[in-house]
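Notes from the 1:1 (GR / supervisor)

We went over the backlog. Supervisor wanted to see one worked example end to end before approving the batch request, so GR pasted a single chain during the call. The sequence is below; no edits were made to it. Supervisor asked that the structure be written out right there so they could see what the output format looks like.
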Amino acid sequence: MSFKVIDPLEFKGNPFRTMQEGVLVTSRAGDTINTMTVGWGGFGCFWGRQVVFMAVRPERYTFQLLEQADNFSVSLMPGDKGMAEIVEFLGTVSGRDRDKIRESGLTLVQEEGVPCFKEAETVFICKKLANPPIHEQDILPGHQIVETWYGGGFHHLFIGEILRVLVSPC
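Structure output shown during the call:
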């Protein structure tokens, strides 16, 4: 199966709903490829460019690969129950310790040298623009964000320019 290329402005997904469904970020550093489930992020315009942004903790194995890579993919997976279980697995098991991509049963493909998944409904091929850290002092006072979400480390906000949008022909 090959993907159809569309202009980012043709993407029909709801940006709020999209980030609540099965989203995987996949990156390569040398011969090492890893993926993880993205829970926090979005789409927008930054520095006059169409971008994807997502929060990733430095403790995550994928963080190391994203830091080293120039490009990465963001795959929007189908919302069926079986895929939801796979997406949950990919978000709870570390690729540092296991070959979780192989174990997931997903088909890894390369688009312009960037790893992504054949089963994805939509794939964003992105060029990393920045990955600034989010520090506790950056979170506005009075919000319970720190108490609710942070018992460990804080995230970095990876920002990637969308180079291509690929959609499944199905």
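Supervisor's comment: The radius of gyration is 16 Å.
Batch request approved.
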